[in-house]
Amino acid sequence: MNLRFFIASDVPEPSHDLNRRRRLTRSTGLMGVKRVTAMRHCRQGRISRLGFLLCVLGAASTAGAAAQGLTIGGRPVSTLSAEPLTDRAKEALRRSTDYLRSLSTEGGYLWWYSEDLKERSGENKATASQIWIQTPGTPAMGMAFLRAYEVTGEPKYLQAAQAAAHALTVGQLQSGGWDYLIDFDPKESGKWYRRTDTAPVPKGKGTGRKNNSTFDDDNTQSALRFLLAFLDAQKQPGPEAASVRSAVEYGLTMMLEAQYPNGAWPQRYDAKRHDSAKFPVQAATIPRLYPREHGKVSYYSHYTLNDDTQRDCIRTMLDAYRRLGKPEYLQAAKRGGDFLILAQLPAPQSAWAQQYNASMEPAWARVFEPPSVSSRESAGAIRTLAELYRETGDAKYLRPIPAAIAWFKRSEIAPNKWARMYELHTNKPIYGDRDGKIHNTMEELSEERRTGYAWQAGFGVASAIAFYEEARAKGPQAQQKPQPAPKTRDIKTLEADAVRAVTALDARGRWLVNGRIQTRTYIENVNALCSYLEAAATAHTASR
Asked: In Å, what is the CA distance from 432 to each residue of 74, 447, 452?
C-alpha cells in the first residue's frame, strides 16, 4: 500500500524513535508498531485521519482490507489507495452536489438542514417550501455551482446553477429585488407582490402584499451578481437564459431607481419613487442634540452603510458595468462613491455613520444601533473609495481617506481593535440594547445583546488601510502594467485541504457538522476542492 498519498507531510522519523520502534516490534509485533506510530503522527498533525486508518490497516494488504469489506466515506479501501486525488476530488464534488440538490426546493436552498431533515433554517426557522437569499443561501450556492462548472466543465453543475437562477427569477419582487426568503407554498406565496404576478393593481392602490427589495446583508445585490455570472457561464440562448436576462435587466433598472439623488441607497426599497425635494444633496453634519432613545421610527428609507449595504450596491453596479458594458451602471457606482464623500462626518470624527436620515445626520436603525461613528462601516467606506479610484482613476475618491485613517489611529481601544460604535462629539465607545437606549459599557447590556453583536473587533480596518495604500501606490487599474499572476497557495496546502474535504464526506454525500448539513460547509469545501483541482492542473501542465 502506498501511504504517501494520504500523508499530509512526510516527516522523517527522529533517530531516537528508531530504538523505540525496535522495542515495540519485540513487544507488540509489526501491527502494533504501525498502530502506535500512526497514532503519534496523527496527534502531531503529520498524518491525516484517513492516513491513520490506512496505517492501521497497513499490516494487512489493501486486498485484505477489501476482502473484509472495509470502506471509507462509502468507498472501498481498495479503490481509494490507487485512485488519484484529482479523481477523488471530482467524485466528492459530484456526490455532495447530488445530495444537496436532493434537498433543494424548486432549485433553491436554505442555510442548514438537520441530519434527519426534520428541521431546516435560514437566518430563522424555515419550512420545506422556503428558500433563502441571504448568504449562504441560494445565490451563494449558485456561485459555488458555477465555480465547480468552471473548473470541471461538467454540465451537471451548470444545470444546478440554472435551477437556482430559475428559483430566483420566480421570487423576484415587483420592486426589482428580493426579500430575505422566497416561499413556494401556493397559499403563502400570495403574501408577496412578485414581478411575475399578472393580476392588475388598481391605480393608486397598494397591493397589501410585501414588496420590499432588501439591500441589507448583500441580499438583492448577491442575487443579481449571481444571475449576471450565470449568464456569462451559460452563453447558450434559450427561454431560460431569456428569463434570467430579463430578471437581471429589470432588477438593475430598479436598483438605479432606488438610488437617491445624492447617490445613496436605502436599506429597503418598495418601488415608490423618491421625491427629490425631500432628499436634498448635502454634506453630513453632526447635530448638537440628537435622540438618545429610539423613537420607534422605521429606518428602511435611511441612507444605509450598515452591514455593507452601500458598498455591496456599488460592487454590484461595477460588476454589471464590467459584464454588460452599459455606462449607466458605472455612473451609478460613481454616484455611490460621491455619496460616501458627502457622508464623511466633519472633523475631528472624520469617519462614517451606520446610517443617515434625509438631513444627512447619523440616525437610529434597530433599537440597539444608535446614531454614532461606526468603525466597521468606516473600514468598508475606505475600501470602497479605494476600489472606485482603481476603477475610475478619479483621485477625488482617495481624498477623504487620510482623515479617516487619522481618526482610526486616535480611536483604537487596543492594538488593532476598535469599538463598533463611538459616541457623537465625545468619541467614547458606546453600546446598544433592545431597550432602545445608549449604554456606556458592555457590562450594562443584556447577555443576548452582549454576545449577539460584534461590539469590539478589528473590523477589517488594517486590511482596508493596506488596500488604500496599495491602490494609491499602484495607481488606477488602467495605468497599471500587467502583473504576473498572484502566487497561489502551496500545492501541498491545497492538497491537504482537498484530502480533508474528501475524507469528511460521508457515504451519502454529506458534510455533517454538529448533526447538520450546512450550505456554508458545502460552499467552503467546493472552493477547497476546486482550488486544488486548478492547482493540480496547472502543475501538470507545467511539468509536461
From this structure: 50, 12, 11
The pTM of the full predicted model, rounded to 2 decimals, is 0.84
Residues with Cβ < 8 Å from 239, sequence gap 6 or more? none
Q: What is the 3-state secondary structure (H, E, C) of 44-100?
A: CCCCCHHHHHHHHHHHCCHHHHHHCCCEECCEEHHHHHHCCHHHHHHHHHHHHHHHH
**Unique residue bearing C-alpha cell 423618491:** 274
The candidate with the shortest Cα–Cα distance to 455, out of 430, 422, 419, 411, is 419
Q: What is the mean pLDDT of the chain?
A: 87
pLDDT digits 0-9 by tens, 90-99: 999 999 999 9
Residues 6+ apart with CB under 8 A from 146: 157, 158, 161, 226, 229, 230, 233
Q: What's the first-to-final CA gap in the chain, in angstroms?
A: 27
> Looking at the DSSP assignment, which residues form a beta bridge with residue 114?
516
* Residue 239, preceding peptide bond in cis (omega within 30° of 0): no
The set of residues, in sequence order, having a beta carbon less than 8 Å from that of 532 and lying 6+ positions away, is: 85, 86, 89, 494, 495, 497, 498
Strand pairing of 512-513 and 456-457? unpaired
